Amino acid sequence: MNKIIKQILIGSPKNFESKKTISSVLVNFGFCSVRAAKNFCLRNEVVVNGKKISDKKSLVSKSDEIFVNKEKIIIPDDVFVLIDKPLGFVTSRVSDRHRTVYELVPEQVTDYCNHTRGLTPLHAVGRLDADTTGLLILTTDGFFSHYMTDPKNEIPKEYLVTLRTPVESPEQAEYKSMCERGIILPAEKKAPEEKSGPAKLSFISQTKCKITVTEGKFHEVRRIFGALGNEVSELRRTKLWEFSLIP
To answer: What's the start-to-end Cα distance of the chain, in Å?
Structure first.
């Protein structure tokens, strides 16, 4: 393990039960394409725990006994890679201007994901911009990433923020109050003007603070402080759900 790769986990994280649609299992194991999954389930013998399944949206887990046309299918353990993302890297797979986070993954991990039957390639859980550092999770588990990024699940994400303009004590209380109530975020690029959900803010000094948000709005933290009349000069994610980095 190095300073960038913080943890490599094989199998679902503690306190999380991953599920998959039977269609995704069929696709990952090469039985059919995404488009053909519905008809495959109707026309073939897909059996889960002794019961024939015809709905492609049926959910299964690793503990289920699955047979496809009498072939036993064992869902492999998913892979999770926790990265302390450096400055200048992007979470997209291809970039003309920046290096991508996938270059940071050890080759043996990438090879394992690409060559293990039933696994999909690693993908990022959410995103961090090139000028944001800190905790990023790459995984093969689509159910996990969807759960973590769905706003209705209110998954906490904590950031360490360095502000351009110092904020004195009386104004800090106002910042906290406005964040707790939600604040109108200015429009930026593809994001319209919109209200943020409640955010928890605590100051470490006049220029450093921690903020916890539970949404995934575009550039949300930077836009929050922009709405407060300040500017973020450095941004680092330190926590996501039960995973954390030392700031």
So the answer is: 18
